[in-house]
Design brief:
five-stranded parallel beta sheet, alpha/beta, single chain, globular, 18% strand, 138 residues
Length: 138
C-alpha cells in the first residue's frame, strides 16, 4: 500500500487476450476484498484490446482509474503523465517507458494472458519483479 493509503493495482493484458469475464470477476473480487481500502486501478491504455475493457470495467465497478499510455498516443482524461509527455512522433521506446512507469506506480500487478505470448507485458513484469512487487499472471 502506498504512503497515501491507496492500494494501487496495475492490470494489463496481452495483445490477443479476450476473456472479459475473468476481468470482471477479478475486479468484483477486488471490490469485495478491499471494500474498506481505497483502490486505484492502473492500466496500460489503448482503445482496441483488453486494456480498453479493463478501463471500462474498472470505471463501471467504481474504481479510481489512471493509465500510462505511450508517449506517441494522445493524452486522454485518464492519462497519468503530464500533457507534454504525449503526442510525440512514434518511437519503439515509448511502449517500454510507459510500461516501466506503470510498474513503478503500482503495488501489485495482474497480467491477463491468453494463449498468446506475454509479449510487451514482459517489460512490465520484469520491472515489477526487479522492484520486488507481486505479479500475478492469469
Amino acid at each position: 500500500m502506498s504512503k497515501d493509503g491507496v492500494f494501487r493495482i496495475a492490470m494489463l493484458g496481452t495483445k490477443y487476450y479476450s476473456n472479459v469475464r475473468l476481468v470482471k470477476d477479478t475486479l468484483f473480487k477486488l471490490k469485495q476484498q478491499y471494500k474498506d481500502t481505497p483502490v486505484k486501478i492502473i492500466g496500460a491504455g489503448g482503445n482496441v484490446d483488453i486494456n480498453k475493457k479493463i478501463r471500462n470495467q474498472s470505471l463501471e465497478f467504481g474504481f479510481d482509474y489512471v493509465e500510462y499510455n505511450p508517449g506517441y498516443t494522445g493524452r486522454n482524461s485518464y492519462s497519468g503523465m503530464p500533457a507534454q509527455y504525449y503526442n510525440k512522433a512514434y518511437h519503439p521506446s515509448h511502449v517500454s517507458h510507459s510500461l516501466t512507469v506503470l510498474s513503478r506506480a503500482c503495488d501489485v500487478m495482474i497480467i491477463f494472458k491468453g494463449e498468446d505470448s506475454i509479449g510487451v507485458c514482459e517489460i512490465a513484469q520484469k520491472e515489477a519483479n526487479k522492484l520486488k512487487k507481486k505479479v500475478v499472471v492469469l
